[in-house]
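Hi F.,

I've been meaning to write this up properly since the lab meeting, where we talked about keeping a consistent format for the predictions we share between groups. The idea is simple: the sequence comes first, exactly as it goes in, then the structure tokens exactly as they come out, then a line or two of notes. No screenshots and no reformatting. I'm using this chain as the first example so we have something concrete to point to.
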Amino acid sequence: MQIAMGIRRLTFVLLLACLPALSCAASVLVAIKGMDFHPSTVTVAPGTTVIWTNDDSFPHSTTSDTKVWDSGLLDPGNSYSHTFDKTGAYSYHCAIHSFMTGAVVVK
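Output, unedited:
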């Protein structure tokens, strides 16, 4: 009887410890400011959502070089997110300012 209670208690404690990992998806923030992406390269695990926020004073975009995603124009203060499920390297740019480039590496 005591062994069964101990096993149930241990199972409950382990379940509680795992809940935060199960209920919270990972996310990474990228700021668009000063005509650049900050940071310009992020390395994430599969299932991570990258959120780009335009902190500049004019519109920008986050546009995949291979057409995986396209935020369209993001006015100042607006955000766009994309979840990366597959491993690989994903280069992107601003459609208006092509010299603004970045990358998401999924490992």
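Notes:
The longest helix spans residues 2-23.
The radius of gyration is 20 Å.

If this format works for you, I'll send the rest the same way.

G.
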